[in-house]
Design goal:
Organism: Acaryochloris thomasi RCC1774
Number of strands: 20
InterPro entries: RibonucZ/Hydroxyglut_hydro
Oligomer: single chain
Protein name: MBL fold metallo-hydrolase
Shape: globular
Distance between the termini: 11 Å
CATH topology: Metallo-beta-lactamase, Chain A
Structural class: alpha/beta
Helix content: 10-25%
Strand content: 25-35%
Length: 257
Amino acid sequence: MHLTYLDSNSWLIELASKKILLDPWLVGPLVFGNQPWFFKAEHTTPRPIPDDIDLILLSQGLPDHAHPPTLKALDHDIPVVASPNAAKLVKEMGYRQVTALDHGETFSENGVKVQAFPGSPIGPLLVENAFVVTDLTSQASLYYEPHGFHSEAVQAVKHVDVIITPLINLSLPLLGPFIKGGESALDVVKWLQPEFILSTAAGGDIKYEGILDKILKMDGDVEDFRKLLADSDCETQILDPEPGQRFEVPLTVSAAA
């Protein structure tokens, strides 16, 4: 398994000899509701679109997961597996091979299996997706939930090798955490006993502007989470990759075989 962190929630996963582009934001700024005064993020280091993408995986329909300018720039013949909300978006853009996965559903093709689980709540009625991605040959597996809302349903998987999820809390005044790390990340580590965990959502080479950035409160850091792991006698290791740099996840022989 090889991973490349592309800032924010964006990752390139290389698994089962396939390149999977996860929640990509690669082109232009990230803006919510066409209101840059409210929130705007820009890459400080350009992130080129990777070559030879085999699958696009979208956990949510929000712009920081299904970024419209990036999705418009990608080849619309690339297969997409997505939450129903994100699937609707890419179908409207003209993507020709779109699979919507509801919670509990599975997609399997070309040696890769994607399982959908309940993920982050978006408003009172919508719950987006978390994913478990598995190499069907080696059985190497990865769990991804970008806001730290982990459903107990994922315990049915029993074990994954790698988790990608937030390790710190981001909160808004009066509303509380909308990205949960800390104890929430520790819970899913205890459930799935991964060999490695990597932080997502609040990272990368990014410049932020707007009112939202000024009122966000960050609680904790990677070292705090490392202490949580140690205090809980968890053997899971934290990996902290350099953004934009491809690296091999050093899975043990038993985990990767």
